[in-house]
Amino acid sequence: MEKTPADHPEQAGEVERQAPDGDPIPDPGLHDPGPRLTEIDTRAAKRAERQVAGMFTLASVFIVASIVAYVIFGIDGGEEGVDIGDVQVSNFALGITLGMAMLLIGVGAVQWARALMTSPEFAEKRKPLRSSDDVRESALASFDTGAAETGFGRRKMIRNSLLGALALLPLPAIVLLRDLGPTPGNAKEHTVWAEGVRLLTDVTFEPIRAADLEIGQLVNVMPATYEELPDHGPERINERAKSPVMLIRMLPEEINAAAGRENWHVDGIVAYSKICTHVGCPISLYERTTHHMLCPCHQSTFDLANNGEVIFGPATRALPQLPIAVDSEGFLVAQSDFTEPVGPSYWEREA
């Protein structure tokens, strides 16, 4: 036979309670924790109040320190680019100061609740979602009682130190907005390609002559102006993401150039952006007999013999084509920048 807690009075606490008929578990009732030290000793209450206020005040100090650390340990880098050591020091300083500020606010709030706030217990039975007017009035009265018991209005030192810390807490976030830098403007619409810029082989950065390419050959190229950018920093990284171009040679009669693009190729050599117009993956899976270019990410397929138009996959825009020519020394150069933004769509893009 299974025994219930009522069969073991020694385990039921100071008061033995009998379970109602059909209920195997007796009502435990409400436990009276007794008065806390801060409720009977005013010096203990004052000491706890000073502890809480001290933590809130110290949190304010750490918040201000985080702003100071942000300014002192800058990561601008200058012409030489951003140094990883500077980034690590800045992250460490910001993490310590902001982490300590949030920790002290949290610990202070817990200490306030544990040492100075009362903790009355309420038992409330389940009822319909819509409470009666009497219950609503009782709930409001309980809320007012709880608000009064916290001593928020009475303990001015705690209240003011907490409000001060919370008022300062958003300041580091406002200061960190500086890291967003200037607005990009129309920077996404352009690359460092320009009229007369030579096409250089990627990695080795050697100029290319038209005679160097064979039918069906693909070469990844970068603009010569890319080498003029700083060795480190966002400008070089951004152009590495936008400027790569694929150079492909096919028979001139296989090219179905759109109106206005008749002189964009050099004896069957065409240049297209290497960045997929779907989500920006780099592409270079070329099928030389069909002149189709496949993106490995989501299988968008482009016809390079027909102005880079999409023939399959989720991409909705053709690959941007770079108009090219030959300079006086016989090297391949760009006629201009791309005539449309490269890469995937974005909100400000018109087409």
CATH architecture title of the largest domain: 3-layer Sandwich
Would you tell me the structural class of the helices and strands? alpha+beta
Roughly what percent helix?
25-40%
Number of domains: 2
| Unreliable parts | 1-6, 8-15
Which strand order does the major sheet show? Answer: 1-2-3-4
Order of helices and strands: HHHHHHEEHEEEEEEEE
- What is Rg? 36 Å
> How many helical stretches?
7
Percentage beta strand = 5-15%
Overall mean pLDDT? 84
CATH class of the largest domain: Mainly Beta
The H-level CATH homologous superfamily of the largest domain, spelled out, is: Rieske [2Fe-2S] iron-sulphur domain
Protein name: Cytochrome bc1 complex Rieske iron-sulfur subunit
Subcellular location: Cell membrane
Family: Belongs to the Rieske iron-sulfur protein family.
Transmembrane segments: 52-73, 93-117, 162-181
Structure description:
It contains 7 helices and 10 strands. A 4-stranded antiparallel β-sheet has the order 1-2-3-4, with no helix packed on it. The chain is 32% helix and 11% strand. By secondary structure, the protein is α+β, with helices and mostly antiparallel strands. It has helices at residues 37-40, 42-72, 84-115, 133-150, 156-168, 170-176, 234-242, and strands at residues 199-201, 218-223, 245-249, 269-273, 285-287, 292-294, 301-303, 309-312, 324-326, 332-334. It folds into 2 domains: 34-124 and 132-180, no CATH class; 187-334, Rieske [2Fe-2S] iron-sulphur domain (Rieske Iron-sulfur Protein).
